[in-house]
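Attaching the record inline, Q. Sequence:
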Amino acid sequence: MEAGIVGLPNVGKSTLFNALTSTQGAQAANYPFCTIEPNEGIVCVPDNRLERITQYIKPKKVVPAYLKLVDIAGIVKGASEGQGLGNKFLSHIRQVDAILQVVRCFEDDDVIHVAGKVDPVSDVETIEMELMLADLQTLENALPKAERSARTGDKEAKLRVSAIKRCQEHLQNELPLRKLAVPEAESKEIASYGLMSAKPILYIANVDESDIQGTGILAQAVREFADKVGAKVVPVCAKLEAELAELEEPDRSEMLASIGLQEPALATVAREAYNTLGLQSYFTAGEKEVRAWTVPVGATAPQGAGVIHTDFERGFIRCEVYSLEDLEQYKSEKEIRNAGKLRTEGKSYVLQDGDICHFLFNV
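Structure, as predicted:
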């Protein structure tokens, strides 16, 4: 699972990406399309539950969850028609599982805005429209082939035709596909199209250093828009975060304290991106390591075991589970077991965010 960072040119995408991945590449020129190929990076997902676990179980190492990010070059109006190498950039978005849209919420005469003015809601709407137009184009190209197959009696093709027409009608009303409920059987038939407006989205309001909490007019406008579409917003000052990323401890903590933050805003971005992707963590804890494992929300115990090793899923017998709250109350796994709080779950158990698990298997 990976998330793509998108936005208009010169909104701070690459600055944000470099800070998130702690890569300090050459400064991009102040021109559109400065990033031609997408950059990829792995980001740690901060989780204080790991620290809480290690207060009672002392491991040799601690392994957090990680998230893959892709920095995609700036999109402009007309991208769906090929403007600004738009087709190439849009193809990169088709390959990711969620979209993180960086929206410019700061004024700076030295940084050119591609539209000549700073209007974050207009920026959001521009990219949303380009994604919808590109999706319409994809569906229009796919429909004739699907209809030909459907005429032969192909059941899957019939479902595909139904899904395509359902999505076309929705898009023609200028509504993104993430707002459309598509039956699961139909959804499977069009999954390979990589429809971009169907992907979950998180808005990152890139704010000025004087508005790090995102309470200014520009950031508030993004929040109001996001509320209407059921999305979340994280305010971030990419310039400040880039400076923080370059600092060593304790200088970073000192700088954070001076601006009234307990942690870099990028920590919130990573967690919200994780949630936007529909992911959650369960933990394994022992003397060797305490580790966060990533699973989709709704994953069963055998599926969670399979993340560790495919043999664990294939030979799954049962799962022993307890909560972090149990650990904090009883102080050790032994006492949790003695108190009868160690639960035994079978193949149908749906993992909960924060479960601490032991898997028993036989292959």
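The two ends are 28 Å apart (CA to CA). The CA atoms of residues 263 and 310 lie 36 Å apart.

More tomorrow.
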